[in-house]
Design brief:
Helix 7 links the parallel strand 8 and strand 9. The protein is of the alpha/beta class. It has twelve helices and twelve strands. The longest helix is centred in the N-terminal third of the chain and has 35 residues. It starts with a helix and ends in a 17-residue tail after the last helix. The strands form two sheets. It has a seven-stranded parallel β-sheet, sandwiched between helices. A five-stranded parallel β-sheet has the order 9-8-10-11-12. It is globular.
Length: 381
C-alpha cells in the first residue's frame, strides 16, 4: 500500500467518525424532543422495556415492541417507554427493520429526568445476570430511590434464561422480581419453583393484516431456511441439494421484516433450524406457505403437534423424509393446503389478541399465573 492509499484510508476513517458523531448528536436531540413531547419529567409511574439492539430484526425484538405498544394501551396511569440496554454504546431512535412505532430513549435520560413513585423494568432474560453490572452508580441510586420498583425478566427463550443464583443481585435493586414467558410449554409451576419467583405468561401476538399472501400455484421453487446454526443442518441441506436440485435455497440473512415476509410468501416451503416453534415455522402459513420443523419439548405447546405433516420427530427423520415430502406436497395442492390450514387452525387456538391483552392486564394488576411453592417462596429474598 503506497502513501496516497494510506492517506485516503485514514481520511475515510476520519470522515466516518465524523458522520457517526453527527448521527449520534441528531439522535440525542430527537430523543430529548420526544422526552419533552411525552412529558417524561411529569411522570410518576413508569413502565420501561429494555431493548438490547435497534439495528437487527428478530422475534425477540419484535415481541418487545408489541408488548410496549400494548402496555401503553392498557396502563393509562403509567408512562410506557422503550430504552436501549445500558451497555449499548451508540444511541438509536427507532428500529427500522420491522414495522413499529416505538421511539427509543436512553436509560440515563430516564434516570436524570424522573422522580418516580412506581416503576416496572422489563429486561430480556439473557442480560438478567449482568444487568446490575451494566448500570452506573447514579443509575443504581435512582433505582433504589423508587419506593415501588419491580424488575420483570422477560423469559422469551428458556434456553437463554440464566440460573437463578446468577441474577440474585436484582433483589438489591427491587423488592419484587418476576418473570414473564412467551411459550406455554415452560409456563408451569415447575419452572416457577425452579427460579423461585412469580411466573406469568405474556404469550405473543402477530397481526397478519397487510402480510403478503400467494397461493401455491403462484409460488416459486424456493426453500427459505432460518439462519440458525446446528450440526444437523448440513445433512438436511445435502439431501435437498441431491434430490431437489430444481429448488433454490435462500437463507434469511440481513433482511427487514417486510423483505422476509415477501420471501416466505414467494417460497413454496420454509424450514426452521432453530427453536422449532418460532417465527420461521409459525409465520409462513399466514403467507400461504408450508413450513417444516423438528419437534422439541422445550418450545412446542404439546405432543399433539407431532400429528401435523410438517413436524418431524427428529432431525434424522427430517433428513430422511424432507425431499419426498416436498415432492408430494408440490404435486398435491389439496394436501399442501390441508397442512397449511391445519397449521393455522392450531395456531389460532393458542394465540388470540383477546388472550394476549388479558394476560398483560392481569400482569399489571399483580395477578400472576404461578407463585413459588412454600419451599421456594423466599428462596432468593
Amino acid at each position: 500500500m503506497n502513501l496516497f492509499e494510506r492517506f485516503m484510508r485514514r481520511r475515510r476513517r476520519e470522515w466516518q467518525k465524523f458522520r457517526d458523531l453527527a448521527a449520534d448528536l441528531w439522535t440525542l436531540c430527537r430523543q430529548n424532543a420526544h422526552a419533552r413531547k411525552i412529558r417524561l419529567r411529569k411522570a410518576r409511574a413508569l413502565i420501561v422495556f429494555f431493548v438490547p439492539n435497534a439495528t437487527i430484526c428478530n422475534g425477540g425484538l419484535m415481541s418487545i415492541a408489541v408488548l410496549a405498544s400494548e402496555s401503553r394501551k392498557l396502563n393509562l396511569e403509567a408512562l410506557v417507554v422503550s430504552v436501549l440496554c445500558p451497555d449499548v454504546k451508540r444511541p438509536a431512535l427507532r428500529n427500522r427493520t420491522f414495522p413499529n412505532e416505538e421511539t427509543i430513549l436512553r436509560f440515563s435520560q430516564v434516570c436524570r429526568l424522573t422522580r418516580l413513585e412506581k416503576v416496572v423494568l422489563h429486561i430480556p432474560e439473557y442480560i438478567a445476570a449482568r444487568f446490575c453490572g451494566m448500570l452506573t452508580q447514579r443509575q443504581i441510586a435512582w433505582a433504589r430511590s423508587v419506593p415501588d420498583l419491580q424488575i420483570n425478566i422477560m423469559n422469551q427463550n428458556i434456553q437463554l434464561m440464566p440460573p437463578a443464583d446468577s441474577w440474585r443481585n436484582l433483589f438489591g435493586l427491587a423488592k419484587i422480581v418476576t418473570q414473564t414467558t412467551a411459550h406455554a410449554r415452560y409456563s408451569t409451576q415447575e419452572v416457577c419453583d425452579c427460579y423461585g419467583i412469580p411466573l406469568h405468561r405474556f404469550s405473543t401476538y402477530s397481526d397478519h393484516a397487510g402480510w403478503p399472501f400467494l397461493p401455491q400455484e403462484k409460488k416459486e421453487k424456493v426453500i427459505a431456511i432460518s439462519p440458525d446454526s446446528r450440526s444437523e443442518k448440513a445433512d438436511v441441506l445435502a439431501e435437498i441439494r441431491t434430490n431437489l436440485s430444481d429448488y433454490r435455497v435462500v437463507e434469511v440473512q440481513d433482511m427487514t421484516f417486510m423483505e422476509y415476509l415477501c420471501l416466505i410468501s414467494r417460497a413454496m416451503f420454509t424450514i426452521s433450524f432453530g427453536e422449532g416453534f418460532d417465527g420461521y415455522f409459525c409465520q409462513p402459513a399466514a403467507c400461504g406457505s408450508v413450513s417444516f420443523a423438528v419437534y422439541n419439548d422445550e418450545f412446542f405447546p404439546g405432543r399433539d403437534w407431532l400429528k401435523c405433516g410438517n413436524v418431524y420427530t427428529s432431525w434424522q427423520e427430517m433428513t430422511d423424509r424432507i425431499a419426498a415430502d416436498i415432492r408430494h406436497l408440490e404435486r398435491d395442492r389439496a394436501a399442501y393446503e390441508a397442512i397449511r390450514k391445519e397449521h393455522l387452525d392450531l395456531l389460532s387456538r393458542i394465540y388470540s389478541y383477546q388472550d394476549f391483552q388479558g394476560n398483560l392486564r392481569r400482569f399489571y394488576r399483580g395477578e400472576y399465573d404461578f407463585y413459588p411453592s412454600s419451599a421456594n417462596a423466599s428462596k432468593f429474598n
